[in-house]
Design goal:
This protein has 145 residues and is of the alpha+beta class. It is 29% helix and 37% strand. This is DUF4442 domain-containing protein.
């Protein structure tokens, strides 16, 4: 099962918004929000809540791609998020998420018995490539048991 398929099963909101997982690797994930009128705001663009969910889902996709092999010993959890809406987003929007720390560094902390925290940066772009939002989600790997 792909990372996108796993998230669609585990996170009902990703299914509700019909998010499209275009690329997932341990370094980067690209996820798209389709342009649907039932996801729009009062000016005809994607609702801020839908864009937040898009960005958070992209961050979760890169975390799962980077640390999915650790699920037997640690649970990934989002600790907090900040988002800035920089411009009007119309049409289909994509979110590109990248890890803010090397995965090996995060795993070294986990191996040392600590609970690592790490940021994931997300750029939200409309179809013409313009960045319309920026987001940072801070994640942790909570050791199981």
């Amino acid at each position: 099962m792909s990372v996108g398929e796993m998230l669609a099963v585990a996170v009902p909101m990703a299914r509700t918004l019909r998010l499209e997982f275009l690329e997932t690797s341990p370094e980067r994930a690209v996820v798209a929000l389709p342009d649907r009128s039932d996801f729009h705001n009062h000016v005809g663009g994607p609702h801020a809540g839908a864009m937040f969910t898009l960005g958070e889902s992209a961050s979760g996709a890169v975390v799962l791609a980077a640390f999915g092999e650790q699920l037997t010993r640690a649970v990934p959890l989002a600790l907090g998020a900040e988002i800035a809406y920089r411009g009007l987003a119309m049409g289909r929007v994509t979110a590109t998420a990248t890890l803010g720390r090397p995965a090996a560094e995060v795993l070294a902390e986990l191996d040392a018995g600590r609970r690592p925290e790490f940021p994931v940066s997300v750029a939200l772009r409309r179809a013409d490539g313009a960045v319309t939002g920026e987001m940072t989600v801070v994640w942790t790997l909570r050791p199981s048991g």
